[in-house]
Amino acid sequence: MFRFLKEKLSKLLKKTEKEIEKAAEAEKEKIEKEREKERKVGVIGKIKKIITLTKLNEEVFEKFFSEFEELLIENNVAIEAIDFLHEKLRKELVGKEIERKKVKEALERSLKEALSSLLLEPFDLIEEIKRSEKPYVIVFFGINGVGKTLTIAKIAKLLKKNKITVVLAASDTFRAAAIEQLEKHSNALNIKMIKHKYGADPAAVAFDAIKHAKARNIDCVLIDTAGRMHTKKDLMEEMKKICKVSKPNLKIFVAESVVGNDAIEQAKAFDEAVGIDCIVLTKFDVDEKGGACISIGYVTNKPILFLGTGQSYDDLKPFNKEEIINALFS
Amino acid sequence: MLDKLGGGLRKALHKLASSVFVDKKVVEDVIKQIKRTLLEADVNLELVNELCEKVRKKASEKVPGIEKKEQIIKLIHDELVNILGAKSFKLEIDRKKKPYKIMLIGLYGTGKTTTTVKLAFYYSKRNYKVCVLGLDTHRQAAPEQLEQLAKKANVACFVDKEEKNALSVWKKFSDKLKKYDIVFIDTAGRDTLSKGLINELKTLNKVINPEKTFLVISADIGKAASRLAKGFSQACKIDGIIVTKLDGTAKAGGALSSCKEAKANVVFITTGEKLYDIESFDATSFVSRLLGLGDLKALVEKARLAFEEKERKKLEKRLKAETFTLDDLYEQIKAMQKIGPLSKIAEMIPGFSFLTSRASKLFDVQEEKLKRWKYAIDSMTKEERENPEMINASRLARISKGSAVSAGEIRELLKQYKIMKQFISETNLEQGIDQRTLQKLAKKFGKKLFLH
Hints:
- The complex is a heterodimer of chains A (330) and B (452).
- Chain A folds into 2 domains: 3-118, Four Helix Bundle (Hemerythrin (Met), subunit A), CATH 1.20.120.140; 125-320, P-loop containing nucleotide triphosphate hydrolases (Rossmann fold, 3-Layer(aba) Sandwich), CATH 3.40.50.
- Helix content of chain A is 56%, strand content 14%.
- Chain A has 13 helices and 10 strands.
- In chain A, helix 1 crosses helix 5, helix 4 crosses helix 5 (103-118) and helix 5 runs antiparallel to helix 13.
- Chain B is α/β, with parallel strands linked by helices and 452 residues long.
- In chain B, 58% of the residues lie in helices and 9% in strands.
- Classes of the chains: A alpha/beta (330), B alpha/beta (452).
- Chains A and B meet through helix 3, helix 8 and helix 11 of A and helix 2, helix 6 and helix 9 of B.
């Protein structure tokens, strides 16, 4: 991950440092010349300041950012998120006095901070479930084919491992063989699943699963829903109904990390319709660029809980903000 | 789906046209806008820079502003068409070769299984004896999914729910497949980074030796598109690309980039979850739609699929004939409901596309209205339907009473009928429409239809 970005970024930082150095050098010469002309004592202090401190002017910054922008674009960060970073960094960096020789560090720090402000630290799901009243209801949603069902299976296994009892609700009653798919996972993991027939009301399935959990004193209900395009009004209404009926403690938006600029539109639409509490990014192993986490983090302002990193049940990685950002610069 | 991308490009071009002097600053502004629009659509950065460079060169030529606009539109149009494939793809199926094998490959969750069945459905409607074969032995319930979809589409399906080796499944059924004209092969989703799955693909490709291999790509994919397309094209030759999930907000720029990487063109696009939500792809009309020029060709094609063969011929005859009646409008309304939501249709009609961004709400209302129009038509006599001009005030009152639809709405229906009739008499849908006529029509009817 970020391999490509890392190399380019460090080159860019070095280049910008040199440019600032050059500008500062020119400035110093100019002032020295002035000093020769004026021969005034008070200026000495000024020179000293310029030698040790330098200012990042608008021009250098824009030049630096336009290259940084291309890097981000190539790494799949959505344009809207880049605009946000641009504004933020411009405010912070332009005109700021930076110690010479430490320009690279300063830039790096600012970039890190800016990126960091886009991402939230995830909470501990297991602690949260243990702390909450039973049953803890989680509903999963997202567009078609992002990997909701497999993600549920992975999380179910993780919960089971942590001695949390789980029941699955097969609320995808639309897609062909969706129920069978979840059923196979439930058999493999030996976890109870509640299902109805195809075409049944997904909210009713969720309701039954919660009822089952209450009756059997089960800790957690995971609700699988049909993939839906965020543009389909009726399906979004259905999603609202599922949430209304199941009153979930947690609404997880599942998205794939290979998604491009559309990530913004998708996340926005789901957030507006049902409200996103947190995010799972799937197919993280497919895309070494990883920009989607920045885009989605930006638009939803919600934490990313897990990254899906493969096809087996254990390929679920807790999201670590520091790790992601440090990976960029190390 | 593409209104945003088209909107951005149109805005840029409008700016160009509205400036009196096209100086360097205007050109740079326009290029900046185009660049941003394309990047937001996930088009590969290299491709974007290339295109912008060409626009810059073209724009610096000394021609008056208005002509310059047309030239630049044409340039962008042609460049995009070029990337997507200038020659429109026509799948020539050799009926003597039995079975003609078409294999679908791609990343996880792009919609291979659904697309496999959609394709089979598409060709079964075109009088081919088709079947589907499920070689996805990895994902849970993949054979069941294919089986259930195939049942819906009423096409033969071969799957083995127990077998874990894709090659054995192929061997098991290869004799039975010989009875069919075309077999569509669904494969497991795979990433080009995982060696095992790529090797499996290579083996399958070698043993099955499909006549055509299509790469399935989701419209919302970002910058990973290029790498994936490259990886897949190294594993086996790709004859075409199918872009799925175009019914969302994605602008499919990633697909554009993959075309270049895989050295293949887009052959089909899919736009929904229903079996007939598949369109053969024509780069020229796609780009026209993108730039907001509308696309009647795709609409006609879509209508063709939604109608049963018999109804289709009837409609074509009707659309050709000058005797267009309310009955026909009724048929059209019925057909439209089969084709999909109105907002989707609107994109394809010249002059409507400029409305789509703010129109989705408007169209939801329209759909309601269509329902009531249907009631009104049901309340008319046969003569009235065939000759709506005869509907006078007293007839109108009767119809309104009979159908519980307000007189105003019925008048609106009659107005729509009049416009449609005029539209049909001035267009020849059979021969297709060239771009100039399209623009002319857009001007004329776009205003009439929606600005009243």
